[in-house]
Each structure stands twice: as structure tokens, then as C-alpha cells.
Amino acid sequence: MELTNNTTAVSNPTNLANMSTADDWMIERDEFWKRLDFVQQLLTILIAVFTILGNSLVIFVTWKEKCLHQPNKYFIVLLAVADLLVGLFVAPFLAYQLGVEFERSESSMSVHLCRFMLWIDTFALTTSIYSLTFISFDRYLKISGPLLYKSRMTTSRSTRIISVIVLISAAFASYSATPQSRSYGIMDTGSGSCNLHTDFEKSATYYLMLTIIAFFLPAVVILIMYAFIFLVAHKRNKRLERGELGQTVINHRQRNALRRDMKVIKMLLVVVGSFIFCWGPWFTWTLMFYYYPNIVEWDSTSLSYWSRLIIFVFIASTLPLFNSLCNPIIYVCLDETYREAFRQLFRRQDGRRQQPSTEMRSSTSTTTI
């Protein structure tokens, strides 16, 4: 059949010209795709490096500074660990996979490595979103009942909650790494050179479940919790302004504590907003791709159309990695407690560097005398 079609095409000059034109635009599209893959590979490596540095600093300063040894800060550490996993594993694997696809290598990765990529990909995301979800609930407990918060949220209780979040994320990630899930990974770590599945319908079912459980439902819960937080904080501020709570020293302390809590809430809102902004396009694109395949004009021969589509997919697939880089920057810029902790850490490091030089100058002066 193929031979007959080729013979007919060659015998017809019009068909031959059409084939030549089609080949030209496809070559240009593939070249553009290869260039963008190379850019994405370099960008992914840079994101991985700075993600590792930023989140490692957050974890280290929380462990080093006693003022950060609080139950609510442990949830931020869990979020930083999840982002650190993205920098250590997910981003490098994606960069490696882009390199394999860029070189058009026919060699495939080990099935065990592919399964691990699927697992760590899903685990890092679900841990991040569940951490953000419980952080919003924790902030609501702190604002709605500040006097009871310390008795409600103890270190042992926060440790148990973190263990539950990790177990749920690990269970969901383990399911995604099984052949029955038909998963390609959240960041498509199972596609390309690691393509394990071809059942389109079952993959669509999995990604619908993933998007609801790991993105839309937690995002709705987070937004509702912060709406409640602002309502409680607004009512308390009004009562303070009207003097209904009196002007005692205790109420003055409550006012200062409320202001500090509102600053922390603003920081966490920026974290949640960046998460939705960075992950929303990717999940939306994934659902549209599986449930509305006509969204892509596969028969289009327009180079500009394919260029726009490729650029959109490039942005949508890079933003989630960028989100793991943003969180530690947000902590440093907006959280006063973390800013002060970083200042103290760097001051001590500067003091240790200056101390040897001071001792050296002192010994030199003594020798001269």
C-alpha cells in the first residue's frame, strides 16, 4: 500500500510539490522544537541548582535557629523538603530526558528508573499541595483561637500530621508508579524515552483523578480557609479599633500578635497564589489534552500555530519547576521571622570569618613588640 501511494505521488508533479512543502514546514517545526528543548534543558538545570540552594537554606536555618523551632514552622520545612526533592530529582531527570530527546537517542532508560521518576514526581507534588493545605488550616487555628493554639498544636501533634501527609503522598505516588494507573507522571516524566503506557482512555481517567485530588480540591479548601481567616481577622481588628477589647497590656500584646500573624498570612497567600499560578496552566492543559483532543489542530500545517503551541507547552511545563524555586525566596522576602533568622545566621558566619583575622593581627602585634 505504501509503495503504491509513493509511486502515485512521484508520478504526479502536484502531489510531489505538496509533499515537498509539507516536509519543509515539518523540518522547520522540528528544528524550532529542538532549539526550545535545548533552552528548556539549560533553564531546568539552572532552576534545579537554585532550588536546591534556596530550600536547603530554609531547612538549615529552621534547624539552626531556636526561634523557628515551632510546630507551624515544621510544615514549612515539609514544604521545603518537597521542593528540595524537585530540585534534586524531578528537574535533573527532566533535563536528562530533554537531552535524550534532543539527541534523538533510541536508547531507553531502565524501567526501574522510569518507575522511580514517576514516584518521586507524584510524591513531591502531592506533599507540596497537602502541606500548603494544612498550613492554611493551621493558620486558621492560630487566628481563630490564639489562646488555645499552643495546646492544640503541639510538636508531637504536628509530627503526627506530617507523618500522615507523607504516608498519603507516598501511597498515591506508589499507585501512580504501577502499570495499572497508566500514569506518565505529573510532569510527564514517563513520556518520551520513558514511555511506558499507550492506553489513552485509562490515562485520561488517572489524570482526572490526579487533578481533582492533588490540585483543584486542595486549592478550593485553601482558598476557603483563607477566606475564613480574613473574616476572623477583620472582625477582631474592628473590635480593637472600637475599643471593645479594652486597652490593657494583654490586649496590646494581642494586637501586636495579630499584626504579626497577618504578615505571615500575607506571605502564605503569596505562596499559595504562586502555586496556583505555576501549576494551574499545566493541569488545565493536561485535562484539555485528554478530554478535548480537538484543542490541538493536528492537521494544521501552519508553522506559526505550532510555534505558539510549543511555546505554551514549554511555559506550562517550566512554571511548576519554577514554583519550587519561588517558595524560599518568598519566605525570605515576606516572613519577618525568617528574615531575622537569616540575618543572625549570616552575622555569625561573618563573625567567625573575622575572628581568625583579628587573632592573626593580635599575634602579629605581640610578636612585633
Descriptive account of the structure:
The structure is a single chain. The chain has 10 helices and no strands. The radius of gyration is 27 Å and the shape is globular. It is mostly helical. It has helices at 2-11, 13-64, 71-102, 111-144, 149-152, 155-176, 200-242, 249-291, 303-334, 336-368. 83% of the residues lie in helices and 0% in strands. The model is unreliable at 1-20 and 363-369 (pLDDT under 50). The N and C termini lie far apart (101 Å).
Q: Biggest sheet, open or closed, and with what strands and sense? A: none
Instruction: Output mean pLDDT.
Output: 77
Q: How would you sum up the global shape?
A: globular
Beta-strand proportion:
under 5%
User: How big is the Rg?
Assistant: 27 Å
Please identify the structural class as seen in this structure: mainly alpha
**End-to-end span in angstroms?**
101 Å
Number of strands: 0
The helix-strand sequence is HHHHHHHHHH
Compute the number of helices.
10
What is the percent of helical residues? over 70%
Runs in which pLDDT lies below 50 for 5 or more consecutive residues are: 1-20, 363-369
Kindly summarize this structure in a few lines.
With 369 residues, this protein is an all-alpha fold. It is built from ten helices and no strands.
Could you name the key traits of this structure?
10 helices, disordered C terminus, 369 residues, disordered N terminus
What layout of secondary structure does this protein have?
Blueprint: H1 2-11, H2 13-64, H3 71-102, H4 111-144, H5 149-152, H6 155-176, H7 200-242, H8 249-291, H9 303-334, H10 336-368
Helix pairs in contact: 1-2, 2-3, 2-9, 2-10, 3-4, 3-6, 3-9, 4-6, 4-7, 4-8, 7-8, 8-9, 9-10
